[in-house]
């Protein structure tokens, strides 16, 4: 039933754009591609950071390819549902998807769910992570968190088993020996942060982009950052608590296509995506939302994925 509903959504999106006028120039492909709308799947509910990336890069890619690029939200299983659906899509370049690494590498619902079979097109960003609590929480710093854990389990909200936030939450809990529990089921990173703002959970691990956005809205407060760089006053870091290895983990946002996409189409899409990510428009947009663009081509993205697979293998026993 879920797949049927998705097909209806994609069909409706394509139908709505059937009359889109192809004007101006576009990147050269060795085939007639593209000559109809492209769907860019967003593996998160509207409102989160993935959603922001999906909508911005749909717009930028549309300008370059001169066909409509339709952002389609498909939350579920922390992003795994959207990626798994690619295995049943045609390898023609008209359906591509954002994917989160390394979190997605941890969640493998079926033996044939093999990330290496996907066609990796490009990487868009690399973002550090942080741990946040609600603005009105009695937890004001890392010491308060440890103190709470000594009296009862600390509740962490997550947005799905396949998310990087979920992956890093479990590693953080294991490495700090925190007494804790997981509160799951939130559709997207913003929803997981809202859970701590409402008091449904004590803390959440999310990208700094998401946390800063929610902090600016007076909904959350950063108390810990994972990246091994000097932290703001009052903020602990992976290095300051003696766990610098936690600073190895970032949220990578890449674009993938179904397995078997012809290389000429893959190369053209990769070049267009890199042009988008390196544009002044994208740089200004990223600065506005406190994001960190980190464009990589096909070969470099595959190397990044291999490195992240090694990180996942290293931490998997703690899961």
Largest sheet: 6 strands, mixed
Q: Give the CATH H-level superfamily of the largest domain.
A: Bordetella uptake gene, domain 1
CATH topology of the largest domain: D-Maltodextrin-Binding Protein, domain 2
**Helical amount:** 25-40%
User: How far apart are the termini?
Assistant: 32 Å
Order of helices and strands: HEHEHEHEEHEHEHEHEEEHHEH
Average pLDDT, all residues:
86
Shape: elongated
Counted beta strands: 12
Class from helix and strand fractions = alpha/beta
Number of helices: 11
Tell me the name of the CATH class of the largest domain: Alpha Beta
Give a quick precis of the structure.
The chain is an alpha/beta fold and 319 residues long.
Structure commentary:
With 319 residues, this protein is α/β, with parallel strands linked by helices. It folds into two domains: 2-17 and 31-126 and 250-318, D-Maltodextrin-Binding Protein, domain 2; 129-248, Periplasmic binding protein-like II (D-Maltodextrin-Binding Protein, domain 2, 3-Layer(aba) Sandwich), CATH 3.40.190. The protein contains eleven helices and twelve strands. It has helices spanning 2-16, 49-65, 80-86, 103-106, 142-149, 164-176, 189-197, 208-216, 263-277, 280-288, 298-315, and strands spanning 38-42, 69-73, 95-101, 119-127, 129-134, 154-157, 180-183, 203-207, 220-225, 236-237, 251-257, 293-296.
């Amino acid at each position: 039933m879920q797949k049927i509903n998705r097909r209806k959504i994609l069909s409706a999106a394509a139908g709505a754009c059937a009359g889109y006028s192809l004007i101006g120039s576009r990147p050269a492909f060795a085939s007639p591609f593209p000559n109809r709308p492209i769907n860019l799947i967003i593996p998160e509910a509207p409102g989160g950071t993935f959603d922001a990336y999906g909508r911005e890069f749909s717009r930028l890619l549309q300008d370059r390819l001169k066909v409509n690029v339709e952002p389609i939200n498909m939350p579920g299983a922390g992003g795994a549902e959207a990626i798994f659906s690619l295995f049943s899509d045609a390898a023609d370049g008209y359906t591509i998807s954002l994917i989160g690494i390394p979190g997605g590498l941890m969640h493998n619902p079926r033996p044939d769910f093999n990330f290496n079979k996907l066609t990796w097109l490009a990487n868009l960003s690399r973002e550090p992570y942080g741990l946040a609590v609600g603005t009105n929480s009695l937890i004001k710093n890392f010491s308060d968190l440890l103190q709470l854990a000594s009296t009862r389990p600390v509740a962490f909200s997550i947005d799905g088993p396949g998310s990087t936030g979920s992956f890093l939450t479990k590693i953080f809990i294991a490495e700090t020996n925190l007494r804790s529990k997981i509160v799951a089921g939130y559709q997207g990173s913003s929803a997981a942060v809202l859970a701590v703002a409402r008091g449904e959970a004590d803390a959440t691990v999310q990208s700094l982009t998401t946390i800063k956005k929610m902090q600016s809205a007076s909904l959350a407060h950063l108390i810990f950052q994972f990246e091994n760089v000097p932290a703001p006053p009052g903020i602990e870091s992976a290095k300051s608590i003696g766990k610098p290895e936690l600073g190895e983990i970032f949220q990578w946002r890449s674009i993938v296509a179904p397995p078997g996409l012809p290389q000429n189409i893959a190369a053209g899409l990769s070049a267009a995506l890199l042009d988008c990510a390196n544009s002044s428009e994208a740089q200004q947009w990223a600065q506005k939302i406190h994001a960190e663009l980190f464009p990589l081509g096909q070969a470099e993205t595959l190397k990044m994925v291999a490195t992240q697979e090694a990180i996942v293998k290293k931490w998997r026993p703690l899961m």
